[in-house]
Every structure is written in C-alpha cells, then in structure tokens.
Design a protein that fits this description.
Number of domains: 2
Shape: flat
Strand content: 5-15%
C-alpha cells in the first residue's frame, strides 16, 4: 500500500485520519446499503442526515468487527480493500481546513485561531451551529453546519480563503 513512500508522519497521519472519519465510513456503509439490512427502532429517525450518517458509520465498523471475529484478518482485509482502500481518493479529497488553518498560522507566526460558537439555532435533534474564527484582532466570516465540527471546518475554509 505504499501510496506515499516519501510521506512524512504528518502527511500520513492526515491520510489515515481521512480514511476513518465518520462521514467517510458512513459513505462506505451507504455503498454497501447496510441500512437496508437492519431493523432499527421506530424512534430512530433516519430522515435526519446526522443520525443516518452516524448509524451507517457504526454499522460499517460493526461489520468489520463481526467479520474479524468470525473469519479473522484476511476477510476483513478483503472488505477494507474493496471499500475503504478502493475509495481512498474520495476520502483524501475532503480537506481538513481547520488543520490547514492552524498550520498556516504557525508558518506565518500568527496567533492560534480561536473557534467560538456564535449561534445555535433549530430544534434539539437538528441543531444548526454557527462558528466564528478570530486570529489575533481579525475576525472572519462564520461557518455554519449541522454539527460544531462541520461549522468549524466551514469557518476555517472561510478564513483560509481570506488569508491565502
């Protein structure tokens, strides 16, 4: 799997992290249509994207664990190669804007970005987060998302767009 034989530890860590992110694992669960094969309590509303994503990711991880317990490493490796590894470029396209922003601040000797939730709206099961970034005395356009993490990434992307 020597995709990046000259890659340093930081790059390889980013690549590995992208492959195990909840959203990417959820896309692997969706690829296998795992939600079609399980009975889920009626109280679990899969029409809420955040819930469906979490369930698909959890199911994918559970399948890997079950296959390992049942058949060992080889069949697990085959499933991982046919799903995660064969779709790795898709995972690697999604960029960690927050990490890139922090690195840029270090390189340019700026203060560390401060991520602050500036607003939360919506019902409890479908919150919308707004995150503002401050770097020193500069404030950047907020990011909005269905989770704090998504909003932080959007805000970081906004800040990078202004700084680059």
């Amino acid at each position: 799997m020597g995709e990046y034989p000259e890659g340093d530890e930081g790059l390889l860590t980013q690549k590995r992290a992208a492959l195990v992110q909840k959203d990417f694992l959820s896309s692997m669960g969706k690829l296998l249509r795992l939600l079609d094969y399980v009975n889920i309590e009626s109280s679990v509303d899969l029409s809420i994207e955040k819930i469906a994503v979490k369930q698909q990711a959890n199911l994918y991880e559970a399948i890997i664990g079950a296959i390992y317990l049942d058949g060992g490493l080889y069949p697990c490796e085959q499933l991982i190669m046919n799903t995660i590894w064969s779709h790795r470029t898709e995972a690697w396209k999604s960029t960690n804007y927050k990490g890139r922003l922090i690195e840029l601040c270090h390189v340019r000797r700026l203060k560390n970005p401060q991520f602050k939730i500036s607003n939360i709206t919506g019902p409890e099961h479908q919150r919308i987060f707004e995150v503002q970034i401050e770097i020193g005395d500069r404030t950047f356009a907020p990011g909005i998302g269905l989770s704090k993490k998504v909003a932080e990434q959007a805000a970081a992307q906004n800040a990078l767009d202004r700084l680059l």
